[in-house]
Design brief:
This protein is α+β, with helices and mostly antiparallel strands and 74 residues long. It has one domain. It has helices at 8-18, 34-40; strands spanning 31-33, 45-52, 61-67. It has a three-stranded antiparallel β-sheet. A hairpin with an 8-residue loop joins strand 2 (45-52) and strand 3 (61-67). The longest helix has 11 residues, at 8-18.
């Protein structure tokens, strides 16, 4: 059997994974969008990367990098 996944969420995850890898201070990062942040609430600390236009999308997406430590938003 073979499995596959499709959809907007998968496309966004793929675009975030490959987005501007030189912009981070370390080799490991987790980028999330607005919907994921809304779902997580204040349970994680994040740094805003601003509203970005990802490849294949027309509308900007609020993007955040998940930080270590206390749950606050920067």
């Amino acid at each position: 059997m073979e499995y596959g996944i499709i959809g907007d969420s998968v496309n966004i995850a793929s675009r975030l994974e490959s987005y501007d890898k030189d912009r981070q201070p370390s080799t490991c990062r987790i980028l999330i969008g607005d919907e994921t942040l809304a779902h997580l609430g204040n349970t994680v600390a994040v740094e805003s990367w601003g509203d970005l236009i990802l490849k294949g999308r027309h509308a900007p997406l609020g993007v955040y990098r998940v930080l270590e430590g206390e749950s606050t938003q920067i």
